[in-house]
Amino acid sequence: MAIEDPSAEHGLRLTIKDYPFAADGLLLWDAIKQWVSDYVNHYYPNNGLIEADYELQAWWAEVRTRGHEDKKDESWWPILGTPDDLIQILTTIIWVVSGHHAAVNFGEHIFAGYIPSRSMIARMNMPTEGPLEENLRNFLRRPELVLLQCFPSQIQATKVMAVLYVLSTHSWD
């Protein structure tokens, strides 16, 4: 978490000062934003060019209305009318698919690869959600047996573990 602070190095003051993900992430964010700014300002030196670029406007409309159809009417979507708007939009997209994606995925296998820690698939509802009182009594009497029935099958668990392993592995090159 961060609070906007124009006097801070990156324009943000971290609420937890010693948080490597945030501190390193801000350095990466700034590098991405600088590169995007140089690129956008080279090709779009004024607002009129952004507004007149029908392909760019069509791309942004498609991102909002087709890529996120369930969120297309939300008021928080940025307007694409200035080079600064485009810089913010592109920086955010590049950050999410690079630094943020890597940070949230690389630790997945350690945390969730052991299925009892974080099962991705449940074969039945937890007993408190079911209509049968007998299920709840069985759960209260021997919770480990009921939990074992909820866990995914071996093949389902193996598939999840394999995907998490791939997501958590750094590229060899």
TrEMBL record:
UniProt xrefs under Gene3D superfamilies: Lipoxygenase-1, Domain 5 (1.20.245.10)
The entry's keywords: Dioxygenase, Metal-binding, Oxidoreductase
GO biological process, one term: lipid oxidation
InterPro entries: LipOase (IPR000907), LipOase_C (IPR013819), LipOase_C_sf (IPR036226)
Keyword Metal-binding in record: yes
GO MF annotation terms: metal ion binding; oxidoreductase activity, acting on single donors with incorporation of molecular oxygen, incorporation of two atoms of oxygen
Pfam hit, one: Lipoxygenase
Top-level taxon: Eukaryota
Keyword Metal-binding: yes
Domain spans labelled Lipoxygenase: 1-173
Protein name: Linoleate 13S-lipoxygenase 2-1, chloroplastic-like
Organism the protein comes from: Nelumbo nucifera (Sacred lotus)
Gene: LOC109113904
